[in-house]
Amino acid sequence: MKTPTIEWTDALRLDFDPMDNAHRTFVTLLAIAQTADDAALAPSWQAVIKHTQQHFACEDHWMRESHFANASNHGLQHRLVLNVMREGLAMAQAGDKQALRAMTHELASWFVKHTQSLDAALALHMRRFPALAAEA
Q: Hey, what's the signal peptide range on this chain (predicted)?
């Protein structure tokens, strides 16, 4: 059995439950994709994409509604990452599973950096907007 390169740790915790809960789910889904056999790879990646779309949409909504200063850069990363994730799915569905397998590891690395920088700033900002955060 393959070992995932991502797991939930306190280093990913932002002390902001709506984001921490979504991030825990993301880590779980990505770990499943990282360890999936060839038959389960594309479906497990689709689950990662679906969750990520929902989570990014929530963050994007928060940033818009709260007038978050770094919204354009943060949102741009969301759009770029989702586009790459969709391309990885298309490659796997066309038979190139190795490209998607590499992507699962690259996404894990990106996620840690994104969480500890851009998401950490957003979580700190969102603590000032509990009613908005409660909509998640």
A: none
